[in-house]
Amino acid sequence: MITFDELMAAARNLTNLTLAHEIAVNANFCIKHEDLPQNSFAGTVKQIVHKAFWDHLESELNEDPPEYEHAIKLFEEIKEILLSFLTPGANRIQNQICEVLDTDLIRQQAEHNAVDIHGLANYIINTMGKLCAPIRDNDIKQLKATDNIVELLRQIFRVLDLMKMDMANYTIQNLRPYLQRNLVDYERTKFQEILEETPSALDLTTEWIKESIEDELSSASDESSSSPGADSSSKRTISPTVVLNNGYLKLLQWNYHKTIPETLITDEARLQELREKLKQLRIIACVCLITNNMVGAAIVDVPDFAEQLKRISLPLLEGMNKKTFDLKEALNAIGVQICSKVNRSLTERGLPTLDKEMQSNLMGQIAHIVEENNPVCSLIDKRIQFFLRSLLALPSFQKSMPTMPGGLSVIQTEMELVGSQYASIVNFNKQVYGPFYANILRKLLFPETPMEKAETGTATATS
Questions:
Q1: Which whole number is the average pLDDT over 247-276?
Q2: pTM score, whole prediction
Q3: Dihedral angle at the C-alpha atoms of 322, 28, 431, 442, nearest 10 degrees?
Q4: Is 418 exposed, middle or buried (0-12, 13-18, 19+ CB in 10 A)?
């Protein structure tokens, strides 16, 4: 039974692992400032609460004599934020901040109505100017031009929030090279800690590998039945590398409503993005193959015609991952535009255009791509799978790409980019989680037989 504390410890480890992985592998990862939409419920509530706070502060400062308690608390908070920006050894500016923003002293001055609130605000702005990144210089100028003290304090907090974000991104930037050098060991150690806290943390991964073994056994069985005299396959003749590579290939056809294996959570978004890109590329290859088969003779002399077909298709296939996307409608539009493009090309060369029947057949073939088990789609899909399987079979240090199968030349550049990103994810994942996979594969492929257990027990008893 897992306790709540153990569960929370595992969650913290997973969060740290995911964050470290994202910083290391995603060069564009950074923290961004995002305001809540003003017309949203949360945005409206935030706006109302903030307005009430600043209106209350303004009414206190307008009293006679002014009430400074809330303002003093703000100065105390600002002091702590400014101190958090300092690097170790910045003793002089640290002492100065503590001296100028000494809240005990400010309270004594408030008792005698002698607080120079504008002077304190100016000191804060000047200090922020010394500590901020150059990108915030314009914000500092705007602060210096603000006269109303309440608005000034409000804007100071806004800019301090931006400076905190800048500091976090600066830390991420400095941390990235270190994480990249040590990420394999760090992730493996963190995952081991998760596994110790939650022993079920490899259940989905085990199921994923088990399914891949079953697929491989089924495939071997089919080959055996179709080849008389071939040896019947057993688990002992299955290659663990092939099992694992087939498992990785299944991730590109994964139903992401289903939870991904635990060892791949950190790359789930990247794998999903690659899957969506491959869907798009598969359709483009299908469109080009169908067009070439049906009207190839008419366009054989047109240079880069396949590239032109790709340029027609790509914009109409944007957003395929959205629920609102209508693939059937997009394919109809592609069919219309391709017929128009082919006819225009034929007209330019003084040749007769496609008749209505040919246009209807071409558009119909393209529209049928959406159907399950479409033969053209199945063919292209097999060739994409063959390319990716060949890519995974290459040694991780080999930089060259395998030969591109026929029918995929129109998407070769995009396939090589997707393949490179995919291989990078897979090879890194193998480095980190290889020992965990090895243990699972050993148990599933080479389970200890009762006879072996008995022999082991006898040997132990007689030793």
A1: 89
A2: 0.69
A3: -20
A4: buried
